[in-house]
Design a protein that fits this description.
Strand order of the largest sheet: 2-3-4-1-5
Number of domains: 4
Order of helices and strands: HHHEHEHEHEHHEHHHHHHHHHHHH
Structural class: alpha/beta
Distance between the termini: 90 Å
Number of helices: 20
Number of strands: 5
Helix content: 40-55%
Strand content: 5-15%
CATH architecture of the largest domain: 3-Layer(aba) Sandwich
Shape: elongated
Radius of gyration: 31 Å
């Protein structure tokens, strides 16, 4: 246990000069660092993804300013606790770090206002959520907002190398590179993974790192990841990138997503984004959905993959989506318009209706819109893919109608 504690402590930077990442916000010479080096009280919220250095930076800020740090979470720190913290310092400067600050309610936020105004403390709020919506305008106007970003792979490698050197761990560069890539910009995951491999005695390149890293306990917001991966999957198909689409498909299934959900998303995509540029896209997507129902995993992965590649490789066209939106807008505006008599399902309507198949080419000029909706254009084809055929056909009919 003591050995593990020593290793973990080795990855903690001793001061801000050893802090890796966020150079554009917190690097040497930046205004934030000027505040800290000058021991000038300030109020800030730092928001960014997990493992990007928010908590570590707050701790180092307190050490650099040589002020005691009070660390609380917004979930557990009510106004009475905050009042006790302020009273405990008796007017002496200190650093208050509030984790998950986006969960602060308005009462807690209002309590902070006079202290921020009088610079009684340095306030640092930490959050993984965008703070703009959660914080009151009064609080936002008194604080700086700094956005931290996910660490680059090279930055993770540097953190790993510095920590290993301080801990006296002989880790091969190939192992560090593998762990850095696995971490996806999260230094905490990288450190946990390295410790996991250390415990397994597998810090050499010859170890089966891929299998061992699958066992690394990683804390994630799986609900958010579900939507993020699905969004990336659909956007990759829309961008005609089958490689990225396959990657996100694999990520979704490996994360435990329902393959039926994936198939449903592709059916929607086929109509919304491929549309009449390739009408067979809908057929392929529905076939993949049926295959998932009939076969199940893991074999149905092939059906999902085939559909994803086919959709990504199809020409794109959203004219159907546009037509539907315009039609609904017009329908809402003219909901009281009466259906033309010749289109009604009545004896008179049947007598007045011109049956297109009774005329050459199965077409005859005839008005289909209600009286108050004449000359509206709903479907605007752009001529992509198969839609060129549809566009040419309709253009010919409309020219004939004008004659």
């Amino acid at each position: 246990m003591e050995d593990m504690q020593r290793i973990l402590q080795a990855f903690e930077p001793a001061n801000l000069d050893e802090f890796v990442g966020q150079a554009g916000v917190a690097g040497a010479g930046r205004p934030l660092r000027t505040f800290i080096s000058g021991r000038v009280p300030f109020s800030a919220i730092i928001w960014g993804p997990p493992g990007c250095g928010k908590t570590t930076f707050a701790r180092l800020t307190s050490a650099q300013m040589e002020q005691e740090m009070e660390y609380v979470t917004a979930v557990s720190a009510g106004v009475p606790e905050l009042r006790q913290i302020v009273a405990r310092h008796g007017g002496r400067p200190f650093v208050l770090v509030v984790d998950e600050v986006h969960r602060f309610n308005r009462v807690q936020q209002d309590f902070l206002l006079p202290m921020l105004e009088n610079h009684l403390m340095t306030f640092i709020g930490l959050t993984t959520e965008n703070p703009y919506a959660a914080l009151s305008p009064a609080l936002r106007s008194r604080i700086f907002l700094f956005k931290f970003v996910a660490l680059q792979t090279a930055e993770i490698v540097r953190i790993m190398r510095l920590g290993c050197d301080k801990a006296g761990l002989g880790v091969e560069d190939a192992v560090i590179s593998k762990v850095a890539a696995f971490s996806s910009g999260d230094a905490r995951i990288a450190i946990h993974a390295l410790v996991w491999l250390y415990q397994a005695g597998s810090l050499t390149e010859g170890a089966n790192l891929t299998e061992l890293l699958k066992e690394v306990p990683v804390a994630k917001n799986f609900e958010q990841e579900h939507y993020d991966l699905a969004s990336a999957f659909i956007k990759s198909i829309r961008g005609s990138d089958p490689d990225a689409a396959m990657y996100y498909l694999a990520r979704m299934i490996d994360a435990g997503d329902d393959p039926v959900f994936v198939a449903r998303r592709m059916i929607i995509f086929a109509a919304e984004d491929v549309g009449l540029a390739n009408p067979l896209a809908m057929v392929v997507a529905v076939a993949a959905y049926d295959a998932v129902q009939a076969v199940g995993l893991p074999e149905a992965m092939l059906n999902l993959a085939e559909a994803a590649i086919y959709l990504a490789g199809s020409p794109k066209n959203n004219s159907v989506l546009g037509a539907l939106r315009r039609a609904r807008e017009i329908a809402i505006q003219t909901r009281n318009e009466d259906t033309p008599t010749h289109l009604k399902n009545t004896r008179t309507g049947q007598a007045l209706y011109k049956y297109p198949h009774a005329f050459p080419g199965a077409w005859i000029p005839q008005e289909y819109f209600p009286t108050g909706v004449r000359d509206r254009v709903v479907y605007l084809p752009n001529g992509t893919g198969y839609e060129r055929v549809i566009q040419s056909y309709l253009k010919g009919l409309r020219n004939h109608k004008k004659e």
